[in-house]
């Protein structure tokens, strides 16, 4: 008789596969063991720098939730495939922006950005390459998990979580997974790909494309920044442990000599950048020498390439506007329909609604408050996001009016429910209670690899610093 595939792989439901949930397994541990696990996770996380910096630049522990999210191999493969399809769609944005005035209206650039783009872009020879993070939500435990998978935005520059994701996975695999396996021996978990290895693959693939004979790297980020997680120095340490010649360089420390980029006395072949050209151009206008960064962007030695400037939420307007989506392949358009929420810049005029019907946008937005999310077009970290369903009519109308004061700087997006999951809260004595969190994924993809950052929050707008924490995302063998 032919054995059926695992019910977990079909629907992502651990209860079907194990007869219980991960929370159920934690409940079967003794209070003393849960308390010991809690303290071990907290101590190692703080010791390894899983912290954020408060307004006074003091390190504060970032909570690490003790229950991992678990996905099956087919789910991981599907997320990887869809992420790569969306990345390839993003790679066409520069050429579309250059030749289609409608795209330039949807993706406006500042005066400094326009100047650098016009001076550095080479339509005949440019090759677009990314290392970034897609933010998405999916419910692995649902039998309809593919339908629940929705992408919210793409962070094509300075994507955070490259150090945090693998570190949290390692901590949970060390302290939580063995205890769970003692009560469920077939619960064999492993991490997804380390985002730093994803980055390394992107850099190595691009170096091979350029036929480079050397592989010296610079991870470029301003030094002396206050606040946030210091991932670049830790990533340099990791890459050096693999035998890679790599340095953490402030972009102002790079110099150009005889057509070659240097950091100190080290020749640099490829740069991974953390900063938008708008920021770099402003530093240049203030008197800093950014000629090395200009050279890297112009000659394909920088990742992400110029297409990384299109971090606008309004990119999804291009993907969800039928006449503009026609620029993309049939496969890409199918992914847009399945996994990209309808998005429009907030400004007067006619457009199409999520069903493709012609509408006057502003009256339609006023009528459909409960299904709309309002977002600043070029912010990050959840800043400024407003859920229409959480506002009363007066507040919502006022928010739309504020957006209209600077047309196109805000977008309206069709609301996609974020996965809601129960996570265990364990007190100092090992007592266990469950609390509902909203959970999202950050996806880092290369040709062969997929890294996943898990985050969760008690608030619908998921922000680790606001009643939230980091979540290990592990694969079931």
Task: Summarize the structure in words.
- This protein is α+β, with helices and mostly antiparallel strands.
- It has three domains: 159 residues, no CATH class; 161 residues, Rossmann fold (3-Layer(aba) Sandwich), CATH 3.40.50; 73 residues, 2-Layer Sandwich (Dna Ligase, domain 1), CATH 3.30.1490.
- The protein is built from 20 helices and 24 strands.
- The strands form seven sheets. Strands 4, 5, 20, 21, 22 and 23 form a six-stranded antiparallel β-sheet that branches. Strands 8-7-12-13 form a four-stranded parallel β-sheet. A four-stranded antiparallel β-sheet has the order 14-19-17-18.
- Helix 5 packs across helix 18.
- The two termini are 23 Å apart.
- 43% of the residues are buried.
- The model has no long low-confidence stretch (mean pLDDT 91).
CATH architecture label of the largest domain: 3-Layer(aba) Sandwich
Helical region count?
20
* Quaternary structure state of the chains depicted: single chain
Q: Low-confidence parts, pLDDT < 50 over ≥5 residues?
A: none
**Taking all residues together, what is the mean pLDDT?**
91
Indicate how many domains the architecture comprises.
Answer: 3
Structural class: alpha+beta
What is the CA-atom radius of gyration, in angstroms? Answer: 23 Å
CATH class of the largest domain: Alpha Beta
Write a brief structural summary.
The chain has 477 residues and is an alpha+beta fold. The two termini are 23 Å apart.
Summary tags:
23% strand, 477 residues, 3 domains, Rossmann fold, Dna Ligase, domain 1, 4-stranded parallel sheet, 6-stranded antiparallel sheet, 20 helices, alpha+beta
